[in-house]
Amino acid sequence: MTINHQLTARGVSLGYGERSIITGLDLEVPPGRITSIVGPNGCGKSTLLRSLSRLLRPTAGDVLLDDTPLGSRSGKELARTLGLLPQTPVAPEGIVVADLVGRGRHPHQGLMGRWSTHDYEVVARSLTATATMELSERAVDELSGGQRQRVWIAMALAQETDILLLDEPTTYLDIANQLEVLDLLTDLNREQGTTIVMVLHDLNLAARYSDYLVAMHHGRIHSQGGPDHVVTPETMAEVFGVRAEVHADPVSGTPLVMPMGRHHVHH
Fold it and tell me: What is the bridge-based pairing of β-strands 68-69 and 82-85?
């Protein structure tokens, strides 16, 4: 069973160069749950996720893992606890799928990088779970966008971390593959207790697959909580500028957004 590590942002400010994107943000990621960060383009979703993984260091405040700032942990130690699938990951040229997924095992291996039976088993399991086993000998750069996305998810799974951060994991995937990936993440969460934080574009999928939602608007958290609390006509108007009705999804019972068209919100 996973130890549920606590990931917390305290008074975090983030930006690129002179451009400030997020100021003084606080967030406690619910351990052992699936959280989705939602909001319009440019609201700071990916920026926040990058800071939670230490890819982006805050200009003020701290991101803490179990009360210790991320910056004070070694890269390898952090990589055993926290995995990240960035938005546009880059594979080394010519690398084949099995080798890329195998890189997920590096944080767990000693200095010699010796492979254990467990390492091989985890890679095989990750390939199978993402339906990429038949691609294992193919070069990553020859794959379609959807295949490549599934391979990157396999690598993230192979890292076997207690916390998994995913930036738009369903990008490039058709609807069947989107649902497969989200079902896979749900299984991982339910069976292993993995804490999952993802940035998702599709609000209805986020509502269906998440225990907790964080809605962002202009670099601030507009609302957070269970899907029923966050996905409301008010949030749709204030965060997305869209007039919408919200009904119960007939399949899952989660809130389902029915947009009515543009809604020009006057501030």
Answer: unpaired
184 domain-assigned: yes
Whether this prediction's pTM lies above 0.70 is answered by yes
Q: CA distances (Å), 192 to each of 61, 154, 181, in order?
A: 31, 16, 16
pLDDT tens-digit map of 40-53: 998 999 999 999 99
Domain tally, the chain: 1
Answer whether residue 2 is part of any domain: no
CATH, residue 144: 3.40.50.300
Residue range of the domain that includes 242: 7-262
Kindly report, residue by residue over 14-42, the tens digit of the pLDDT: 999 889 999 999 999 999 999 999 999 98
Each residue of 177-212: pLDDT tens digit?
A: 899 899 999 999 999 999 999 999 999 999 999 999
Q: What angle do CA 260, 183, 185 make, to 5 degrees?
A: 110
Specify whether the backbone of 113 is left (phi greater than 0), alpha (psi in -120 to 50) or beta. left
| 121 alpha-carbon distance from chain centroid | 24
